[in-house]
Amino acid sequence: MRIDARKAAVAAYKERKVATGIYALHCGPAGQSWVGFAPDLSTIQNRLWFMLRAGGHRHAGLQRAWTAHGADSFRFEALEAVEEDVANVRDRVLKERRAHWSAKLGAEEI
C-alpha cells in the first residue's frame, strides 16, 4: 500500500462515526441472555468472542455457558444505539438503558 493511501485509510478510520450502545448475547441451549453496553457496537462482538474463547471473560456465568455450549450456541444482537455526546451523561444513560433491556429480556447484566 502506498504511503498516501495508508494515511488516507488511517484518517478515514479515525473519523468514522462510532455507535455507542446496548447489546445482548443469547445462548439458545442454556436459555440465558446477557445485556451489556459498549463504546463501539461495531467492535464489541469480536472483543467478547476473543475473551470467551480465551476463557478470560470476567462474568463467570457467561464464561461457563460459553464453555459448556460453544460459540455456535451464541448469538449477538445490537439492541440500541445511544446518541449522548457528553461522557458522564452517556455513561449514566448507558447504565439506565442496560437495566431497562435486562429487565425487558430477563437477562443478566454484564
Q: Which helices and strands, and how do they pair?
A:
Elements lengths: L2 H13 L4 E8 L4 E7 L2 H14 L5 H10 L4 E9 L4 H19 L2 E2 L1
Parallel strand pairs: 2-4
Antiparallel strand pairs: 1-2, 1-3
Protein name: GIY-YIG nuclease family protein
InterPro entries: GIY-YIG_endonuc_sf (IPR035901)
Organism: Edaphosphingomonas fennica
Descriptive account of the structure:
- This is GIY-YIG nuclease family protein.
- InterPro entries: GIY-YIG_endonuc_sf (IPR035901).
- It comes from Edaphosphingomonas fennica.
- By secondary structure, the chain is of the alpha+beta class.
- The protein has a single domain (18-109), classed as GIY-YIG endonuclease (3-Layer(aba) Sandwich).
- The chain has four helices and four strands.
- A four-stranded mixed β-sheet has the order 3-1-2-4, sandwiched between helices.
- A hairpin with a 4-residue loop joins strand 1 (20-27) and strand 2.
- The radius of gyration is 16 Å and the shape is flat.
- The N and C termini lie far apart (40 Å).
- The mean pLDDT is 92.
Outline:
With 110 residues, this protein is of the alpha+beta class.
Question: Structural class, judged by helices and strands?
Answer: alpha+beta
Mean pLDDT: 92
Q: Strand share of the residues?
A: 15-25%
How many runs of DSSP E, i.e. beta strands? 4
| Fraction of residues in H or I helices | 40-55%
Q: What name does CATH use for the topology? A: GIY-YIG endonuclease
Give the H and E element order. HEEHHEHE
Note the overall shape. Answer: flat
Rg, rounded, reads: 16 Å
- Uncertain spans: none
The strand order across the widest sheet is: 3-1-2-4
Termini gap: 40 Å
**Which CATH class is shown?**
Alpha Beta
CATH superfamily: GIY-YIG endonuclease
Tally of helical segments: 4
Protein name: GIY-YIG nuclease family protein
InterPro entries: GIY-YIG_endonuc_sf (IPR035901)
